[in-house]
Amino acid sequence: MSENRRYSLVAPLLLILVGGALLLNQLGIWHLDWSAIWRYWPAVLILIGIEILLGRTRLGNALTLLIGAAVVVAVLFYTPVASFEAERATETYAYPLTGAETATIHLGVSVGSIHLYALEDLDNLLEAEVSHDPERARIVEKYDLMGDEARVTLKTTGTGASSIGRNQLQEWRVGLSPAVPIRLHFDGGANEADLDLTGLTLSRLDVNVGVGDATVRLSEVGTYDAALDGGVGLLTLVVPSEAEARIRVDGALGAIDVASRYEEQGRYYVTERYDTDEDHILVDIDGGIGAIHLR
Q: Are 224 and 245 in contact (CB under 8 A)?
């Protein structure tokens, strides 16, 4: 007696959706607006429901596949075009370095772009400029000095997502001081992130990429651990030429492009002088769906 096996169609359709979007972006045919794509997440629930109702027969599976394909096409090509800009507010923040010997900083961007860099002026621990639509999202800030440790939280609440005819993406520029060791935690939503950490003194780095494209340039200063959650999209990790690193990539569902400077050692990608250099970086990447580039 033959055994009828049922395979879920939802996961392959999701892979087609993400892969198609990434391919169009790479070819320059369609610039990804991850905030628009993210708005369609309820379609996943619809596909699961349709599969439960119809996916018990061959005809039902065929109908599920056709409906799912139609949803994928709609999500890829029926993204709203902004016809006007939402009114935006620009807010600036600055937190002093005075009294701080170490710092813990938590940044959270829901939808938009962020550029992070090292400050040249050493008077402040953090300086930030955030442009956003105050009707859709608000900025939450908190600063505490606990002994000699400064603790800063700067994040958005609310969806900040685009609606038809409105562009509500946030734009962040954040500068951090290289004068003190920093434990940095970054949470991304649907965004494009450029995290240039060169020159900073890091004690720990945690990055949740979210959905979108992220470039993380690691600091060349000292020894520290870094953990990156790949999310959905493209993650580019750049290790400065003067730094040594050992990188573990786990569970990536997509392509991994590794520069020639790395030697593959089992589960790790290792630079030439990692074992002999006094200062080094240990990186753990929990891969998501998309591509990972190691540079």
A: no
